Automatic annotation (TrEMBL):
The active site is at residues 304, 390. Belongs to the peptidase M48A family. Residues 237-452 form the Peptidase M48 domain. Coiled coil: none annotated. Its EC number is 3.4.24.84. It catalyses: Hydrolyzes the peptide bond -P2-(S-farnesyl or geranylgeranyl)C-P1'-P2'-P3'-COOH where P1' and P2' are amino acids with aliphatic side chains and P3' is any C-terminal residue. Proteolytically removes the C-terminal three residues of farnesylated proteins. GO terms for molecular function: metal ion binding; metalloendopeptidase activity. This is CAAX prenyl protease. The chain crosses the membrane at residues 129-152, 173-192, 204-224. It comes from Hydnomerulius pinastri MD-312. It is found in: Endoplasmic reticulum membrane. It is a multi-pass membrane protein.
Length: 465
């Protein structure tokens, strides 16, 4: 531990310029955030002409009739227009808030709120909670009409919306309540640990964040998910039998198998698993069950179990921990730099002893360009995992010595095509746009890879578990 703290102290020495050099941090954040937004707009403009194509890729020509393809192109075009406008609008609002001292104002308002209850500025955690609440509520307001438009105009226009106005409002209020109920205690713990541990807070915060992630895995299916959707045991039948048999053969620790009423809000389909290493839950959307045959849903689940078999969630968790560690290791230099806060219109009194939550929020803005690059790298890793899971499904016949699974790759391909057709997903995708935005390979890439996996499997010997 001492070696770790020694290395972290050396890093802070390298970053000492943050507290000494005259840097226009506000200009830096404005330039970086606008740079990322304009780059994202450029990617949309690269992608947009592809929505004018009148024919799907040759490999998909037999699966998309002209009317379905036309609808998918129109849906993609409308979403691209919406994303372009909302991206620029949100950036303009964020830029104005930053330029005109909104964050300093929100901190002062938080102080006035707690002052009404007899608390002074020495109660930093209490003021931080009030500051965060003000920030959250006011910054959420511009997104409400945009979200309503997306749900009731864009999604409605293309036949996907199932959300009623009352459900929309209820979901929003539930989300706010959860944000305060979970975010408040977590933020308090985060700030307490930072103050308690002093400059040696990095490993302690890492432990706190990891514990929080594990707790969320536990409470999500039992407390949070039921607030928004009804999870019912998957009915007895072919699909349940297939799923339980597959899980048993792979020794997947299946505890619960659910059908979720995803159609309550949307016509989009999905399936996923979650849980602790010794207790897993599989959730299948009712829309997926309705739109695909049991053997095709089984192939989708085989892909998902491929993620489990290759420990992809664990690997992503490790990557995320390394990412978090890097961020926390860099943070102290900005926490102890009064002029850093002064650049964002905070008073000399506040800047003299920078509040942790304020310094961390502004520090995250500094990381905007780095986070964009990290996002591309994570997408690359995620796509490798997706191909590995697809290959796992193709190899199940050999892994389990089960001849009835010899066509699993074909079934998965049909299921992916069905999902894309029913969801009106875009099938023409610019490579750079995909690299930046997509954590999954495109449909044509996955189909070609499935063919390659199948060909290699046919040419290789058996691989048993």
């Amino acid at each position: 531990m001492d070696l770790l703290h020694t290395q972290l102290a050396a890093l802070q020495q390298q970053l000492s310029f943050v507290a000494t050099d005259a840097i226009d941090w506000k200009f830096y954040v404005q330039a970086c955030s606008w740079g990322v937004t304009l780059f994202e707009s450029y990617l949309l403009l690269r992608q947009y002409p592809l929505y004018s194509k009148t024919e799907p890729p040759a490999v998909l020509a037999a699966h998309f009739d002209k009317e379905v393809f036309r609808k998918s192109q129109l849906y993609g075009k409308d979403k691209a227009q919406f994303s372009l406008i909302t991206g620029l609008l949100k950036q303009a609002i964020d830029s104005a808030m930053l330029q005109y001292g909104f964050y300093a104002w929100a901190w002062d308002v938080g102080g006035k709120i707690i002052g009404r209850f007899g608390y002074g500025s020495e109660y930093e955690i209490t003021q931080s909670l009030a500051f965060t609440a003000v920030l959250f509520l006011i910054s959420s307001l511009p997104g409400i009409p945009l979200s309503a438009y997306q749900t009731f105009v864009l999604e409605e226009k293309h036949g996907f919306n199932k959300t009623t106005p009352s459900l929309f409002v209820t979901d929003m209020l539930k989300g706010w309540v959860l944000a305060f109920a979970i975010g408040g205690p977590f933020l308090s713990a985060f700030l307490y640990v930072t103050k308690w541990a002093g400059d040696r807070f990095v490993p302690w915060l890492m432990a706190l964040l990891f514990s929080f992630q594990i707790i969320m895995v536990i409470i999500f299916p039992t407390i949070i998910q039921p607030l928004f959707n009804k999870l019912s045991p998957l009915p007895v039948g072919d699909l349940r039998s297939r799923t339980e048999a597959l899980a048993a053969k792979l020794k997947f620790p299946l505890k619960y198998l659910y059908e979720i009423d995803g159609s309550k809000r949307s016509s989009h389909s999905n399936a996923y698993f979650f849980g602790l290493p010794w207790s897993k839950h599989i959730v299948i959307f009712d829309t997926l069950i309705k739109e695909s045959k049991p053997e095709e849903v089984e192939a989708v689940l085989a892909h998902e179990l491929g993620h489990w078999y290759h420990m992809h969630p664990t690997k992503l968790l490790c990557i995320s921990q390394a990412h978090i560690f890097t961020i926390l290791a860099l943070f102290p230099a900005f926490l102890h730099a009064p002029q850093f806060l002064r650049a964002f219109d905070f008073s000399k009194t506040v800047s003299a002893r920078p509040p942790t939550i304020v310094a961390f929020l502004l520090f995250q803005m500094i990381l905007t360009p780095m986070e964009a690059v990290v996002g591309i790298a994570l997408n690359f890793v995620s796509r490798q995992f997706e191909w590995e899971a697809d290959r796992f499904a193709c190899e199940l016949q050999d892994r389990l010595n089960a001849s009835e699974m010899k066509d699993m790759g074909d079934r998965l391909g049909r299921a992916l095509i069905t999902l894309h057709v029913k969801n009106l997903s875009t099938v023409w995708v610019d490579w750079l746009y995909s690299a930046y935005h997509h954590s999954h390979p495109t449909l044509t890439e996955r189909l070609k890879a499935l063919e390659t996996f199948q060909a290699k499997r046919d040419g290789n010997g058996k691989k048993e578990l």
